[in-house]
Specification:
There is one protein chain. The protein is built from 1 helix and no strands. By secondary structure, it is an all-alpha fold. It is rod-shaped, with a radius of gyration of 13 Å. 0% of the residues are buried.
């Protein structure tokens, strides 16, 4: 599946996955300001 993706698409997917993980982490952890 990943092999078929173009480098640009793979990068976008990675970025989206990272954003999703970060958002999930932010929801779990209380805001530290």
């Amino acid at each position: 599946m990943l092999n078929r993706l173009t480098p640009r698409k793979a990068l976008t997917t990675l970025r989206l996955t990272k954003q999703g993980a970060l958002k999930r982490l932010e929801m779990k952890t209380p805001d530290i300001d």
